[in-house]
Specification:
Order of helices and strands: HHEEHEEHEE
Radius of gyration: 26 Å
Strand content: 25-35%
Distance between the termini: 66 Å
Largest sheet: 4 strands, mixed
Number of helices: 4
Strand order of the largest sheet: 3-4-5-6
Helix content: 40-55%
Shape: elongated
């Protein structure tokens, strides 16, 4: 009887030590952090990450996302365009969506814009718009009288060096 009793005590001590060692590895803050991360991930599901240009590069807008509308690609694109933060020297005048998942954006740039600012804003636009699952983004620069000045073609790998 004493042997069975001692085995139970040893077993309980081993379980207590094992449980203590396992639970010591994860603090309450870490458990809360992982719960918070899971909530943030589920809240971001079905959304489009918006990007904006800074002096240093292209960064995700941490506070703003746009809901994805898979049933109406044109409306989803319009909402993303309206929600984006662009340089005051850049304005998206209009767009057209093709059936083969291509989009053409007609953009007017201020005459005093630098090439770097223009490129960073193009990268932010493409990175935001490609989250709508467009394959190719065409950007047409507009001049006076809506004259098309130049066309640039971008894909998901066009701005590889601007990834975080």
């Amino acid at each position: 009887m004493k042997i069975a009793y001692n085995k139970k005590i040893i077993l309980l001590l081993m379980l207590s030590v094992t449980f203590g060692l396992v639970s010591c590895g994860i603090t309450e803050d870490e458990r809360q952090g992982s719960i918070t991360d899971n909530i943030n991930i589920s809240q971001k599901a079905g959304t489009v990450q918006l990007y904006h240009a800074t002096a240093e590069g292209v960064e995700p807008d941490e506070e703003r996302y746009q809901l994805k509308q898979p049933d109406n690609l044109s409306a989803a694109l319009e909402e993303v365009i309206e929600a984006m933060t662009l340089d005051p020297m850049v304005s998206i005048e209009r767009y057209s969506v093709e059936e083969d998942k291509d989009v053409t954006l007609y953009i007017r740039y201020d005459k005093d814009i630098t090439e770097e600012t223009k490129l960073l804003n193009d990268a932010a636009i493409v990175k935001s718009v490609e989250n709508l699952d467009f394959i190719t983004v065409y950007i047409i620069s507009l001049g006076e009288g809506d004259k098309e000045l130049e066309t640039a073609t971008y894909t998901d790998s066009s701005f590889y060096y601007y990834n975080e």
